[in-house]
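Hello,

Our lab assistant flagged a job as stuck in the queue for most of the afternoon. It eventually completed. Since we weren't sure the result was trustworthy after the delay, we are filing this so someone can double-check. Below is the sequence as submitted and the structure that was eventually returned. Let us know if re-running is recommended.
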Amino acid sequence: MTKITAVVGLLAVAGIASAQVSSGSFTPDATDDYESYPGGRAPITSLFSGTVPVVAGAVDHRSIDAGDWFDFRTPGGPLAPTSGTKFGTLFGFGDITLDFTGLGGIFGFSGFASAAGVGDDVLTFFDMGGSQIGQETIVGGFGPGDGSFEGFSYVSTVAIGSVRLEGRETGYDDLSYTTIPAPASLAALAGLGVFASRRRRA
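-- returned structure --
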């Protein structure tokens, strides 16, 4: 019995080293509901009252009014915000990066998302030095294809410096973060997880 316990303990430590970010819940420090932006497809250059820069990649981030962005998957329909009347979107097929380094890094990131174009969504997590610490591919994109948003939530055993969001005209709403590290017990469980591509819900 003692040997088995020791082996499990070693596997837990190895898991933490190999998978710093995994699915998990947390209590948010802040949530951005996108209601403070002007709509009308106006560019969004920062989130969370200006504390988190939005770095354009292949596309930029835009403020969208309800009814002004359509899901081209089946059964389709306009994207409906999870709260309020506005959300943000990747303005085309490509990526943006949210920069959390000015906050000293975060230990949890969550929100809601819905792909408007056909293809996969990819979330990539980087530490404070820019090294990749996790990635997840959502096969077929976030959401069931009817314009509704799908929730996601991740925790990390090390500080997340930035998150790259990549997809096909994907909308985002009610993004949240925490700067408080997860309890040691939760961090250990998170460390045992590994990212794998997952299919869009039917």
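-- support follow-up --
The delay was a queue issue, not a problem with the job. The result is valid. The longest strand covers residues 150-168. The mean pLDDT is 86.
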